[in-house]
Amino acid sequence: MKDRATEPTEAVEADELGQRLAALQRLGQETLAAVVEEFLARGAASLEAMQSALASGDGEAVADAAHALGGSSGVLGAGALAAACAKLEGWAREGDLGSCTVRLATVEQEYQTICKRLAP
Amino acid sequence: MGEPIRVVVVDDHFVVRKGVCALLMDAEDITVVGEGGNGWEAVELARRLRPQVILMDLKLPELSGVEAIQMILAEQPETGILVLTAYGLEAQILASVEAGALGYLTKTAEREELLAAIRRVGLGELYLPASLTRQVLTHLHARPARIAPETLTAREEEVLRLLTRGRSNQKIAEDLGISEITVRTHVSHILGKLDASNRVQAALYALRSGLVLLEDV
Predict the structure, then answer these.
(1) What is the rounded distance in angstroms from the CA atom of residue B58 to the CA atom of residue B89?
(2) Which of A11, B29, B83, B84 to pair with B100, CA 20 to 30 A apart?
């Protein structure tokens, strides 16, 4: 279940993401396309890195990958994904890899939601 | 309206750089003059473009954000550094403030908050979220004062106390019933006497010397 005090609702999330994409579009259609392509490529790589690091018990690597995805998603207005990454990063840095395993599923779910918005 | 605030954006992620540029695009008083992808580029851009504000990530390749901040401020102490990073990295955030960064925001910050932070830092003022201010001050208060300043006047001490509490020049002027220009002059004298490159370092002196108690901040 989402923490409603800290994570945006889906409606607000979609609106914020839409506004940020519209702003990027004003920088140029090519820029918007490049940003989306980069986000999707880097996001997929970050998720793979998290899965791999979690499997090998490398908490710092999990945290670093979550940090990278969290930063990009935050700037794009994908608040729920950024919040999920932040929690994952926090637990990973504390070495709580059990909680990370559960949270990673949330990160993947939120990432897929954003992917559908970016590349419907 | 005067000249727009000249901003450089430094982050190793293209998505973040362009996302920030998009957020700033419609602000008439802010203009992005350069973008960099690592710490060395930040130093070079600062040297070449002389921005008033640098939006700086901390996890940068080749030269870290904190190292870049130290190099930039050593050459151009008037540059306002606003750290923009994802969640966490408290140790690096504390190190960046100690290195002279004037502000800190997370990458999830809303547009209006980002604009407000750039405007404050562009004026040489502090912009730290309340949640982080106490943590930063507690961390830095534990360290002894390293400088032996000239004696401050009573008025300068008053200004320094208010500055340490995060008041802007405008608020200090209102509190003391003096003009903002006079406040600026006092701040300039304080920085000179304390050999401080910015308001953060002056505030740290106030805390370390006991002029301001942490409980009062």
Answers:
(1) 9
(2) B29
Q: Which two tokens stand for residue B187?
A: 């701040």
DSSP state, residue B127: B
**Contact yes or no for B81/B121 (Cβ under 8 A):** yes
DSSP string, A49-105: HHHHHHHTT-HHHHHHHHHHHHHHHHHTT-HHHHHHHHHHHHHHHHT-HHHHHHHHH
pLDDT at B115: 96
Low-confidence ranges of chain B (pLDDT < 70): 1, 87-89, 130-132, 134-135, 137-150, 214-217
- Touching check for B113 and chain A: CB below 8 Å? no
Q: Quick check: pTM over 0.80?
A: no
CA angle B143, B145, B147 (to 5 degrees): 145
Query: Six-digit token pair at B156?
Result: 């300068």
Query: What integer pLDDT is reported at residue B125 of this predicted model?
Result: 84
Option in A34, A70, A76 nearest B86 (CB): A70
Of B15, B25, B87, the CB nearest to A75: B15
Instruction: Tell if the CB–CB gap between B18 and A24 is shorter than 8 Å.
Output: yes
Quote the ipTM score: 0.81
Q: CA quadruple B91, B53, B10, A76: dihedral positive or negative?
A: positive
Q: Sign of torsion, CA B106 B5 B192 B182?
A: negative
Looking at residue A1, its pLDDT comes to 38
Reported as a single tens digit per residue, the pLDDT across B96-135 is: 888 889 988 888 888 999 999 999 999 888 887 766 676 6
Q: Which residues of A lie inside 8 Å of B (Cβ-Cβ)?
A: 20, 23-24, 26-27, 31, 34-35, 38-39, 42, 63-64, 67-68, 70-72, 74-76, 79, 82-83, 85-86, 89-90, 93
Q: What is the pLDDT of residues A51-82, one digit of tens each?
A: 999 999 999 999 999 999 999 999 999 999 99
The DSSP 8-state label assigned to residue B109 in this structure reads: -
Q: How far apart are CA A24 and CA A29, in angstroms?
A: 8
pLDDT, averaged across chain A: 86
